[in-house]
From TrEMBL:
Keyword Transmembrane helix: yes
TM spans (from-to): 75-93, 129-148, 185-203, 209-242, 254-275, 331-354, 374-395
Keywords from the UniProt entry: Membrane, Transmembrane, Transmembrane helix
Organism: Luteolibacter rhizosphaerae
Name the record gives this protein: O-antigen ligase domain-containing protein
Membrane among keywords: yes
């Protein structure tokens, strides 16, 4: 860790321990967004600043006795179950196995769990969420500006300041692929794309921040010069558009498996090869489709507790391991670490998250002035963008935070709205007040 990185970490850590709860997310976000993954301390292996600040956040919660907004819920339990299962499954891997042994899994479980539970603690209602998103909108501006200059100069300024990412910008198909503080251009663009639906939802509460955030996020998507984030943006905007058809979502959900079966009957190859058809330019869409195909064909090798060898799945491997291929699928990455149970737990977490988006919306009157119904819907659209992206991208570095941030905020807002609805039920309306009777009937 260089002196600048250490200074930023020290200031962020002190602030994280000392500021009131509603502001605690600010120093955490500063460490997540601005400091590269290469800034690390050797504590039981190299621990990036991102993880160190998560540890500081845990210390803060323990010292202050800060709990989860609304109490313990189903997604909280699923998160603990996922972490416990991954740790258990790690003992069925080689002790020094790349990305699967107990030491690695302890770090991975701690990372995703703390991302989730810290956000659950710091964001407890819609006011908290709107404030956090306003902060993120402003914080992304320097990232967007730096990525623009990467496109013009071919130099990554975060590499010069912190290191940990390549100084020279990668070129593909004659296009410079800016990455900012992230380790890959696709991850930088994906973070921007996934946040755009929430910026749209933020418009009524904070139009200034919403406009700034959308411009910054769109700049990140454009500057990364990757087709994946463009598709992520498309899925997110599709989710936002479906707000107009929210009353038909039951029929829309049923149309998805029906549509899949129809495509399976008319296509010459498995339906998931559409991923390759959707890819643009020089991207590796075929690889992502073939990876799913190989995971199915080699199911017997990994279904129980994962596997330490995936090199035989694909014609190409990765530079950092002779035993593995490039697992460009977030769900399958967990399958490699913990078998089919880990994949099912990931799906269950996402499933409950989508369900709770609808349940939270139902607790808010149709005429809410803050636009919270639409905001919550946009949170679901952002999660939809992440889930769709996960089929072709395995999140790593600080981009992991934004995936679990999406799930954690939905979990917190659902609990906040549920408790609010229960409070209303505890106080019966005045029988002579028609407006109160109408509000009562909603619950």
């Amino acid at each position: 860790m260089n002196p600048i990185g250490f200074l930023v970490f020290l200031v962020s850590a002190i602030a994280l321990l000392s500021v009131p709860r509603r502001y605690a997310i600010i120093p955490l976000l500063a460490g997540v967004i601005f400091i590269t993954h290469g800034q690390a301390m050797d504590i039981g292996g190299k621990q990036p600043v991102f993880r160190l600040l998560l540890g500081v956040g845990l210390v803060r919660i323990i010292l202050r006795g800060e709990g989860l907004g609304g109490g313990f819920n189903r997604i909280d339990k699923l998160m603990l179950l996922l972490g416990g299962w991954l740790f258990f499954a790690s003992f069925f891997h080689e002790p020094g196995a790349m990305a699967a042994g107990p030491t690695f899994i302890i770090g991975k479980v701690g990372e995703i769990s703390l991302c989730y539970f810290l956000v659950r603690s710091f964001c407890q209602d819609m006011d908290d969420f709107a404030s956090i998103m306003g902060l993120i909108a402003i914080m992304l501006v320097p990232i967007a500006l730096e990525m623009i200059q990467e496109k013009f100069t071919g130099i990554n300024l975060f590499s010069k300041l912190f290191g940990g990412v390549r100084e020279e910008v990668v070129v593909r198909d004659d296009a410079l692929r800016a990455r900012g503080p992230f380790r890959h251009a696709i991850l930088a663009g994906t973070v921007g794309a996934s946040l755009i639906p929430i910026m749209i939802g933020l418009w009524r509460r904070n139009p200034g921040a919403a406009k700034i955030g959308m411009i910054a996020c769109l700049t990140m998507v454009a500057s990364c010069a990757s087709s994946g984030p463009i598709l992520s943006l498309g899925f997110g905007m599709m989710g936002v558009f479906l707000w107009k058809f929210r009353h038909w979502m039951g029929m829309i959900r049923w149309s998805i498996p029906i549509g899949y079966m129809v495509l399976a009957m008319i296509m010459n190859r498995p339906v998931y090869y559409i991923i390759g058809e959707l890819s643009m330019g020089g991207s590796t869409g075929w690889h992502r489709s073939k990876l799913i195909d190989s995971a199915i064909n080699y199911f017997g090798d990994w279904w129980a507790f994962g596997t330490d060898h995936t090199r035989s799945w694909m014609p190409t491997g990765v530079t950092f391991s002779e035993e593995h291929t490039d697992i460009t699928n977030y769900f399958l990455a967990y399958g490699v670490m913990g078998g089919i149970m880990a994949v099912l737990l990931m799906i269950a977490i996402v499933w409950v998250g989508f369900k709770w988006v609808g349940n939270a919306i139902d607790t808010i009157p149709e005429d809410d002035e803050n636009g919270d119904r639409f905001m919550i819907w946009c949170m679901g659209a952002s999660l939809f963008s992440h889930v769709a992206t996960s089929i072709s991208v395995a999140y790593y570095d600080q981009s992991v935070f934004f995936y679990w941030f999406s799930i954690a905020t939905i979990s917190s807002i659902y609990m906040s709205r549920l408790n609010h609805a229960e409070d209303l039920l505890e106080v019966p309306p005045e029988p002579d007040d028609p407006a109160s009777r109408m509000q009562w009937s909603r619950f």
